[in-house]
Structure formats: C-alpha cells, structure tokens
Amino acid sequence: MLQQAKEKVWSFYQALDAATNDQLEAVFGEFCAPDYCFRGCHPFNEIDNASDVIKTVWQPLKASFRAIQRRQDIFMAGENSLDEDGSIWVVSMGHLMGLFDQHWLGIPRTGRMAFLRYCEFTQVVDGKIAQSAFFADIPGVMVQAGVNPFPPQSGAQLIQPGPITHDGIMTTLQPAQEGAKTLDVINKMISDLGNWDNKLSLEEELALTWHDDMIWWGPTGIGASYTIERYAKQHSGIFRASFSDRIFNGHVCKFAEGHFGGFFGWPNLSLKPSGGFMGMAASDNYFDMRVIDIYRRDGDKLAENWVFIDLLYFFYQQGIDILARNQQLSAESQSDMTNRFY
Residues 219-245: pLDDT tens digits? Predict the structure, then answer.
C-alpha cells in the first residue's frame, strides 16, 4: 500500500507540473477523490473541492512562475501514527522553481528565477488522493522580490538545501525498523519540548535529542541556525521567552520512514504573546500557529530539521494582513513613481 501511494503521488506531481492551466481539471479528476479537500498556508487556508484549489492555488502560481520545476529534497510515505486505522500519507518537500514573470499574490514579478520553498502532506485512500496539506514559504518569495515584510531576523536567510546525506528521495520503501527509531526520537524530542520548565538549561535539554552540529532550517522571518548553541540563541530561547502561555493542540499526521520523519498540525499550537517575537506586541489573546516539521535522524539523535510556519496566518490573526499591506505599499510606490516622472 505504501509503495502504491508513493507511485500515485509521484505520478500526480509529474502530471500537475507538466499540465497547462487548461489541463489542470483533468489532472485533478484523474488522481483525486471526488470529495478531495485541501489545507493550505494563508491566504489559501481550507478549500473543500478540487476546482477551487485549481483556481485559487495552482492556476495563479503556474501563470506567475513560468516553466515551473519541482525540485524535491525529501519524498517519503508512512502510516499515520496518530490514526488508529493507519491512514497512509506521502510527504514531498523541496522548492518549486520558475521564472517569476507575473505578479503573484501581489508580490511584484522579478523576471528572474525564484524559489518557492514548500512541503506537502498527501493522504491516499483507495488509490485516490483524498486530502492534502500544502505549506509554502510565501514570505521567502517576497524577500527574493525585494519586499521583505518582516523586521531583521535572528537566523540566516538563504535558499535552503536538502539533507546533507542527499538520500531524502525515497521512491522505494525503507526498512521499517529505521523508521521506528526515527519516530521514537521525534516523540522524545516533542516530549522534551513540551516541558519549558525543566531544570536543565536549554542547551542541555536540546542535547538530549539533537546532535551538537544540528541544523534548524527555519522559515523566512526567523531564518536558519547551525549548532545547538546558535539555535538556542537565535530562535529557541527567543521563542520561549516571547509567549506567556501556550496550548498544544496536537498533530493531524505524524510518521517516519527510514531516517526521516515529520508531522503537521492544524493548528499545532495556540500561543499568548508576551512581546518580542518578530517585533510582535504583547496580547491577552491566544493565536493559532500552523506548523510542518520534517526531521533527519543520524544515529540516535536528530541532525536536521526543516520547519514551515504559517507566519502570514499568525500575523493575520493579530490584525496584520501582510499580503494586503504589501499590495497597498506597491500601489503607493507605483503612484509615487508616476507622479515623479509624468
């Protein structure tokens, strides 16, 4: 079943990437269930039918990113450890690359190569794609277009590579015992993460499940960090100090295959800001955070972590519509240019 699911999703991506906008309905009709549903990062959010997914997500993206390529770094499948019935999911992670020739979501075109970092969880039921969760680093495209919406970030901003081992594309099944080891380490790490009040220092706590030379590939607005010491300084410590309370809502899907594993939530966390995180003010309200985490295990500890946080949605709940603000500023800039030269 897992191998068939991999082949189904792989074939779907090949057809999706090759299709013209007029052919997308046929592609989704062939591969997706009639009641296909979609969860996407903001501004896409929840969509309950394939036609609207095509119109809202894929047609605009393919029109803006000409000659689009899917550059996958991780491709894996497994049974959802949170589902008693063992539902089957496939994960694809990497970049969608193309020539950014048309404005997209109000982000100005560049006429140059652009990389949209993404991760997608896809459930396959009876040979059809039943649902998917698609997170993309839209702010990363904004930075490439010269319209960074965030204050200076604590980590590094870069086009993020895949695993150092270059073995993340698992088109065939991996040994089950390796996946079990990976899932065990991920679960232990989650348990440690849930206890912000333990007596260990942050670095000591992280060292229980992470290699010293770990890499945390964070989203645009936060950035990437290398080594436990820098990760604690550049993100984890800041994050913990920036919220006065948190509620863990659980995950929708979590599994591992081989040395890789991950999960997504909808939402994973509800957080009460105390101020300081990415310039946010304190609040008495809780705001939901949607996250995808993908991990690579090396031996008995985690070595790499690719993180997708729906920051556009997190800000949107607090009354800050980053995409709308960008469009407004772009329009004002164009108006200023017109008034200046004519």
Answer: 999 999 999 999 999 999 999 999 999
Question: If 0-12 CB within 10 Å is exposed, 13-18 middle and 19+ buried, where does residue 22 land?
Answer: exposed
Token output for 234: 């550049």
Q: Where in the sequence of the chain do the CATH 3.10.450.50 domains occur? A: 2-144, 176-325
Residue that has been written with the tokens 């969860």 in this structure: 39
Q: Which residues pair with 97 in a beta bridge?
A: 69, 115
| Residues 6 or more apart whose Cβ sits within 8 Å of residue 320 | none
The residues near 28 (Cβ < 8 Å, ≥ 6 apart) are: 36, 50, 51, 53, 54
308: number of Cβ within 10 Å: 26
Looking at residue 293, what is its pLDDT?
A: 99
Kindly report the pTM of this predicted structure.
Answer: 0.94
Q: Could you tell me whether strands 128-136 and 113-125 are parallel, antiparallel, or unpaired per DSSP bridges?
A: antiparallel
First to last CA, the chain: 65
Q: ∠ CA 245-250-252 to the nearest 5 degrees?
A: 145
pLDDT at residue number 157: 97
CB atoms within 10 A of CB 246: 16
Identify the band that residue 340 occupies on the pLDDT scale cut at 50, 70 and 90.
very low
Say whether pLDDT at 334 is over 60.
Answer: no
Check whether 141 has a pLDDT greater than 60: yes
Coil vs helix vs strand at 310: coil
- pLDDT class for 86, splitting at 50, 70, 90? confident
User: CATH 3.10.450.50: does it fit domain 176-325?
Assistant: yes
CATH topology of domain 2-144: Nuclear Transport Factor 2; Chain: A, (3.10.450)
